[in-house]
Amino acid sequence: MTPAPLTARLRDPDGPLFFPVTAYGPDGSPDLDVYRTHVRRGVAAGAAAVFACCGTGEFHALLPEEFEDCVRAAVEAAGGRVPVVAGAGYGTALAVRYARLAEGAGADGLLAMPPYLVHAGQEGLLRHYREVAAATALPMIVYQRDNAVFTPRTVVELARTDKITGLKDGLGDLGLMQQIVSAVRTEAPGDFLYFNGLPTAEQTQLAYHALGVTLYSSAVFCFAPEIALAYHRALTAGDATVLRRLLDGFYRPFVELRAQGRGYAVSLVKAGVRLRGLDVGEVRPPLHEPAPEHVKQLAQLIERGFALLEEDA
Fold first, then answer.
1. In the annotation, is 251 catalytic?
2. Is the pTM of this model over 0.85?
C-alpha cells in the first residue's frame, strides 16, 4: 500500500517529531548499527516522524556519503512506520545534491536548511528553495532561521511552489509568524504545514499552539521520550496542571542549562542519550562536549523529570 502524502501523515501527529543524533564510533566515523538502534527506539517510543541528519543530527559535519548512509539507515530502522525527513543545505548546488542523495536513500521528505554563509535577499532565497524543490519528487519543508528569514509575501510564494509543503520556524518572532500564517491562509489556502523549530520547542509551544502551529521538534525526545510524550499528551489534552509542572520543573531548568554553552543544543542532547545508556559518541568539531559539571547537572535534571512523571502515576 502506498503511504499517504507527508502532509497527511503529519497533520495530526500522535507524538512529537524526533530529530535523532548521529552516532559515531570510537574512530569518529558514523556507527550505523547504534544509529539504527537510536532511531528504532525513538519510533517504538512514539515519535510521529524521524528527521534524520538535520540540526541535532549534525548535518553540517557529515560528508555526502556519510549523509546518504545515515538517511538510508534511518529509513531501514523506521521501517515505514513513520515518515523519514532528511536535511538538505549549503549552497544551491550542494543542497540539490543532498536532496537527491536523500531521495535515493528512501527518504519521504526534505528539511531545507538555510543557505551557507550568505545573507541573500528575498528574491534569491525564493529562487534557491524553488531550485532545490524542483530537484526531486520529495515534498520539502523550509527552515526559517539565521540568514533565511522570510517576509509573509515570500512564504506565500513558497506555499504556491510545487512540492514545498511547510515552514519550520527557528526564529521565534511570533508577530511575524502570525502574519505569515494569516497571509498564507488568505492568499495561498491549502494544506501548508507549520513547525516550531526553536531549541527545546516545548518551552514555547503553548504560544505557537495558539497560532495554530501544532507540530514541533523535540530534542528532549532523543534522551527522555517519556518526558517528551508526557508533555505532548498534556498539550493535546489541554492539561494545564501537568504542563506547568513539566515546564517549571524540567523544561525551564533544561533551557537554562542548555544556555551555559554554545552548541549545547546538540552536544548536551547527545550527552543525554549517552546518560540513558546508548553510546552515540561525541560531537564532531566545531562543536564541543559539555563540561563535566553540566553533564552531572543534566543527569540530575533527568532524574527530576522522571520524578515529576511519578506524581501523575
1. no
2. yes
